[in-house]
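Q: Here's a chain of 416 amino acids. Please give me its 3D structure as tokens.
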Amino acid sequence: MLLRSWIESANAPDHPFPLNNLPCGVFSTTGEEPRCGVAIGDYVLDVSSLEETGGLSLPGGPLLDVPFWNELMEAGPQAWAALRNRLTEVLAEGADDRAVVEPHLVPRAEVVLHMPFLVSEYTDFYAGRHHATNVGTMFRGAENALPPNWLHIPIGYNGRASSVVVSGTPVRRPWGQVKGPDHAAPAFQPSRRFDIELELGAVVGTPSDGPVTVAEADAMIFGYVLLNDWSARDIQAWEYQPLGPFQAKATATTISPWIVMKAALEPFRCSTPPREVPLLPHLQEPGPMLYDIALEVALQPECGVEAVIARTNYAEMYYSAAQQLAHHTTSGCPMNTGDLLGSGTISGPTKDSRGSLLELSWGGKEPIAIAGGTRTFIEDNDTLSLRGGCRGDGYMIGFGDCVGKVLPALADPYAR
């Protein structure tokens, strides 16, 4: 049920940032340096200044005197719980400490949002069965849609942490090498099949050194963000055999500006689907590991009307973030505070629940309708927005929009 706050805007049933949520971000105001903040209703609570003035004390602190959440994340679950408990106490309706907290509130309309954490490493997975089946059917036929290993392990690849950006950052259409017609030489040109992937990103809080169980992996996760893994499909089609995506995925990965802590999502846990092939013991779940998070994708042409082109749910995933993280460690690979794990494209069973334009337009063969036209892939100056939230009893848990506008490709970078 809704936890009521003395900040009235946080009590609205459709507001994304009630007291139940308390997501973590980094913000700045005019003339001020970025600092840590927590969204509550129509405000951002400046927890950096609140900690500095003694209104917030955390075990092992100070932890919020830097413009990123990594130090709190590394401090572990005890510190995470202490933060939520203290903020819930001072922001609750009738709180005695209102006068201590109120001077540290900043209207959210007046802030600029920044990357909420320092990304240590980035790994992207291919763990949605509907997406994998759709893509496999397009390229290999329905009988061979899933690779032989797909039902046994969450497949992934190491991506580029350096190109992870926060929502609102423009994305430039990339150049790359694409396959030529028939047996002609490949061409170096701007991507003509630029796409999005609707994903959820898990943010690793506590590090590991050696294999961990699924339960231990779940305890390591600090929280979640919406994630758009921009993909140049024509570059990918030429480069991916035999080692998988490389430059096609290196342009940018956009994340939403607020980390929704795992604790806020606990009421919405749900189970992964039944297994037609039993998983090996080290990947089996000790309990529900997914979340009931409704998701949507919207596309807005320049000077045009926005259209929602897909709706789906994170509950459609085949492998959870905890399973992905546990699998990542099986080789002994250390995981670091600030590691980011992309879920893989989240698609549902129906055409309007597909989480990429590749699927929605079926490889470009079936254009999708938008206001005033159609799309197969992203055109210049299109703005793509990912949204998501959980619906509780009289409240919701929102992530903040994950937005990126695609700018035209630059002139040939190698022209002299």
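Q: Can you summarize the key feature?
A: The CA atoms of residues 104 and 172 lie 37 Å apart.
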